[in-house]
User: Fold these one by one.
Assistant:
Number 1:
Amino acid sequence: MIRNVVIGVLVAAVAGTGFWGYQEHKEKNAILINAENTYQRAFHDLSYQVDILQDKIGNTLAMNSRTSLSPALTDVWRITSEAQNDVGQLPLTLLPFNKTEEFLSDIGDFSYRTAVRDLEKEPLNDQEYARLESLYGQAGEIQKELRKVQYLVIKNNLRWMDVEMALASGKENADNTIIDGFETVEKTVSGYSEAQTGDPTHTSTKQENKNFQNLKGEVISKQEAIQKAKKYAKMTEPIEVKVVENGKGAKYGFYSISLVETKTNNEVDMDLTKIGGYPVWYINNRDIQNSKLDLNQASNKAVQFLKENDFESLDLFESAQYDHVGLFNFVTLQDGIRIYPDSVKIKIALDDGSVLGFSADDFFQSHKKRDIPQATLSAEEAKTKINQNVQIMEERKALIVNDLDQEVLCYEFLGTINQDTYRIFINANSGREEKVEKLKNSEPVYENIL
Amino acid sequence: MKGISSKWKGVIATGLAVCCLAFSDIHASAFTSQVIQKGAVGDDVIELQARLQNIGYYHGKIDGVYGWGTYWALRNFQQSFGLPIDGLAGFTTKKKLADASNFNAKFVHTQIQKGNEFTYYGGVDIAKQIKPNTNKKNTKTTGKTSTNTKQATKGNQKTNTASNLPAGYSQNDIQLLANAVYGEARGEPYIGQVAVAAVILNRIDSPSFPNTISGVIFEPGAFTAVADGQIWLSPNERAKEAVIDAINGWDPSGNAEYYFNPATATSKWIWTRPQIKQIGKHIFCH
């Protein structure tokens, strides 16, 4: 009798475990499938977008009427961005897939630039037309390769989860149709990229501008760099110093210097350029417990620091307080014109007014003496280009980098519509509305609303 | 306009010594000595907003953050009262404002602490200007946390300059970034954390990566913390500070788009990227 009961209990236990295991298995599968589906969706979406992209570029080539060309190019731009999004969702980061993404970005930039232009006044020139044709051809090649991969994926029921496993286990060389397929796509594209760089209308990616080519001065030694760093840090000896030179892949030469004040254990880190020893950035991350200075006093400290360190003619244009730190953003002022690309940011501690941080990355990349052309429009004329509903409160001249990566002289207007404030830039020569941005109101803390 | 204002300053300055004691008694709750500048936060800003609203210049929320709405209100006030129009609440401006308006500090601070929606217009019964916050239960702690977090987030929004940021960042964006930074680099030195945040931001700018914060962070295989779920650990304040520094333009990575830990990296490909520098355990590269 007891034996039967024991057997019964055991049978029930085994059955229960089995059932539980089955449930677990089912759940795991469900999640795997879910993940797999996301990848599949992104992949098929990508190849669909590239299909459409190719068609649309083809359409623009055939278009004659300018009024239809602008919307079509805008559409190309939109689809490019969708395709880029899809690429981003695929587990390809460990594959060298950059060229394809850059190609998509190229099409995007080109179509955007041409679409926003008034094609009635400035139609596509021969060079641009030729570029459009070559982009069309390349899109066709990519489309062909992608379709091939897609076909194999569907036919052999290939799974992206396997690709991820293969990549994660480091067996890139293993035979994997999807990986091989994408490598072919990549090769196809990189075959074109060489030819493209010679094209004058080729938009450089932002990275290529970041070489600090405007810096002046002699190359400084490690010792000189340490001296300069100590001057910025204003620490008392003994100081523990560490200096490292930039890695081989850096786009410009710099020293990374770390200073630790032995007495207080405060640490200051900074990068100084090898040419001239200019500070690219500087961070002192000590704790600040209380505020003794107000934001206005702190801004004076920031101005003083800039003067001491030979940053000339800078104009404070934004300030903000975070707990016990004041953050200030300065831009160059040349002949009363704000040069927005030249920006320097400074953090001041509100307890003793010392400099906590400094960032002049943007400044050193773009700062130079500029020949700013005269404005052909008057401020009054520029004002007429602005939406009637905006009540203009402030105006000045400013130099900005527009959407097409060009420096343009503008009239800057600050204006309001009801409770919102807008910053509007009107090109001082063409009257084009270069940039309109709604300046943020303070955002409520959701924790308190919900 | 300027001539009048400097004259005013002179009058005030000479009268200052005499009047100081008398005034401090009458305006017990009046401003501290600070010159209130755009971007400031705190009790003085609350008083500034409440007073400007009391005499009908400010129509926004009284939240203790000196933003654009407050700025225009103050400038309009300065214009009407013949003061120099600079958006700075210095001694003269504060005094003029204090004389022209009422400020019931207890009422205003109580409403803020309770999280109520309220206004403070003059000539209307203040009790009728409250819309109680019915959702909030733990009212005791809100006052404190609200000012703290507001200070942190306020700064982020203000970093949106005309030149360097593609778009504004919301609190949620910063939270997501802080999660990623904490998951990826919580054992790293502070500048290492700023650098990781900067890499994420550099990727958003780069043509080779998605154009959104979530796109970059959740790109499969891009970050180990995302793959193994460490991204969902609660980040500490330091990670958030690092993110805010990076958004404000600090980039210790030297414009890197990749980084890896040489001790644990499995991919051979990552070693082929041009290396910029090493911070802590991470090597940063283009």
Number 2:
Amino acid sequence: MDAIGQGIAEAFRLIASGDAEIFEIVGLSLYVSCLSVLISTCAGIPAGIFLGIHEFRGKGILVRLIYTFMSTPPVIAGLTVFLILMRRGPLGRFQLNYTPTAMIIAQICLVTPIIIGLTYNIVKEKAPVISRLGITLGAGSPARMKLLIYEMRVGLTTAVVSGFGRAISEVGAVMIVGGNIKGMTRVMTTYITELKGMGNYERAIAIGLILLTLSFLINAVLYHFQERESR
Amino acid sequence: MDLRFENLQKAYEGKLVLNLHEGTIKSGSRTAVIGPNGAGKSTLLNLIAGLDTPNAGHIYYSGSLNIPAREITLVFQSPYLISTTVERNIAYPLKLRGWKEDAIQQRVEELCGELNLMEFRRKKAWKLSGGETQKVALARALSFHPKLLLLDEPTANIDPATTGEIEKMLETINQREQTTVVLITHNLAQARRVCDRCLFLKDGELVEEGSAEELLLHPRKALTAKFIAGELLI
């Protein structure tokens, strides 16, 4: 219990003291997660919509693959990206391993299927009804698409936040491709793992609390949005 | 807007569900489409509204084969309201048509007044009762002065008072704006109250058509008489 109490006290002390290393780690965590989620959203939402409203050969297999990728173990994604980016790999010439870019790529691989899968499910449910409604009210294709996106706004936000939750809390992939290098690729989750290994539980708890607080804040924003839209 | 069907056929999974050799719906009329379940009534409305395409045959809209999509509307039995306020739902078709904001406001107010929706106008769509939802769907459909109004059992599962309001609105709009109304209903009394024409379909075929009064009170065909007498399963 002492360690937990001290961890909480240490968390407040670290935040209050403006510990440069902590802020750098938190900053890099947010940068990597936000950028990977942004790219995944830009790719995943249109892909999910396309998949939801179009029929084509092999769609069933593609959907099953996406569902499988939604639950890909992060270490597998990390290992795959590492092998592709390693010096002897197909993209080795770019020398991206052990850089934040590699971490972003690994997180994109984890987050994009989640956003595609969740978007696809909402589109599948809503698109036929919205399409019929749009036609009966004289809406052309662009207006129907706009209406569909408007009607899915809460569900799409949930998909993006789920993706962000996956990205910010992920440790296996960023550890493999980033290497937890101090001042370069160290993020909150990899730092917690290292601190735990070193027996520095107070600092690990402190970082954990910061991570939880960030997660809480993001979910609070989502909850506020959902509440506002259903009131 | 008048409608004419010519050798209209629709099949689903190889089964012919609609097979109309010919038929007309006169401009400015109020036409009831009656018949047992599976008669092809909803299929006919979906084809007219452009929600589906026929396997064969044609529908002529005032002589033209082109669907005037912006002059036709369809109100479903369980309408979908956009997840926003009542007034924004009613305003939506007008925004699509580029109406100015003050004209939209005026039209929304007119319709809310006529359908007793004033007190609900700022209410969110998902907080409305079934009857209120149907009235909003009707107001939204009428907002842009459609020339052809299609209704697929709009008053099924709705209380008599709201049904009365909807029926009154259909008559008003038909008389005031010469809107052609096509109404699917299982309520034969409603067909007689609201409509001046009637089509009786069975197994996708047009069995009989005529004035509502004549068809419902003095049917010429034995099958129609049987249906009216309740001897055919709905």
